[in-house]
């Protein structure tokens, strides 16, 4: 993979570079702010970008807004948001048109480097990687806005509930007696129906795993 990293914390940025290069991937640029991210993607056209949320100048949501702009300007480049926070308002915008080639993982909850790299590969290939806590936060915000239940089918709701529990595609498919490809379809469709209005970013605790999806349902 050819990768651009956008992370303002120097130690974290260099650590990501080392981890990915040690596994044979090419980090074509490692930058510290949103504007530099967009320029780096334009210059290098990577397979995927790893983006932190809180970057200069205000250290609030610049990274996530840059990720949304990146998706609009370069829809064929995968975007993996990698942060300590769940920012529901902009996360919904990031997933609004399509969840293909989008990921959102929480730093404190990725327990294994191999899982992180596998999720990054999946996003680069056009799949989806979402931490269960991200799904939980999005579901909660949507329900508070009283918009989710009316927009999701019963099966989509069942899939998302199991996803929020941290179950894999295979486990969800077994529980609902459907194919893994059907699970992927329901996740992609339902992600476009999330209507989240809360602007607050919430710090979340540590979980040992994340849930990932791809176009082939693997």
Work out the number of β strands. Answer: 9
Rounded to the nearest angstrom, the radius of gyration is 16 Å
Proportion in β-strands: 15-25%
End-to-end CA span: 19 Å
General description of the model:
- This protein has 218 residues and is α/β, with parallel strands linked by helices.
- It has a single domain, classed as Rossmann fold (3-Layer(aba) Sandwich).
- It has 10 helices and 9 strands.
- The protein has helices at 10-22, 34-44, 62-73, 88-95, 113-124, 132-144, 148-151, 154-164, 169-176, 180-191; strands at residues 2-6, 26-31, 48-51, 78-83, 85-87, 102-106, 128-130, 201-203, 211-213.
- The strands form 2 sheets. It has a 7-stranded mixed β-sheet with strand order 2-1-3-4-6-7-9, with helices on both faces. The protein has a two-stranded antiparallel ribbon with strand order 5-8.
- It starts with a strand and ends in a 5-residue tail after the last strand.
């Amino acid at each position: 993979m050819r990768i651009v990293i956008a992370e303002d914390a120097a130690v974290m940025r260099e650590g990501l570079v080392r981890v990915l290069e040690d596994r044979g991937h090419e980090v074509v640029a490692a930058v510290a702010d949103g504007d530099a991210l967009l320029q780096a993607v334009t210059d290098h056209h990577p397979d995927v970008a790893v983006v932190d949320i809180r970057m200069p100048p205000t250290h609030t949501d610049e990274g996530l807004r840059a990720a949304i702009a990146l998706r609009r300007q370069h829809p064929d480049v995968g975007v993996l948001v990698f942060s300590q926070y769940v920012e529901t308002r902009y996360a919904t915008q990031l997933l609004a048109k399509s969840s293909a080639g989008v990921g959102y993982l929480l730093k404190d909850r990725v327990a294994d480097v191999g899982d992180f790299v596998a999720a990054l590969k999946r996003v680069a290939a056009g799949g989806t990687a979402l931490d269960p806590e991200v799904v939980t936060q999005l579901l909660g915000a949507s329900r508070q806005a009283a918009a989710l239940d009316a927009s999701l089918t019963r099966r989509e709701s069942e899939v998302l509930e199991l996803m929020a529990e941290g179950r894999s595609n295979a486990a969800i498919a077994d529980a609902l007696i459907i194919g893994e490809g059907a699970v992927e379809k329901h996740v992609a469709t339902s992600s476009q129906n999330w209507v989240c209005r809360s602007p607050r970013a919430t710090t979340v605790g540590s979980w040992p795993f994340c849930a990932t999806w791809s176009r082939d349902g693997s």
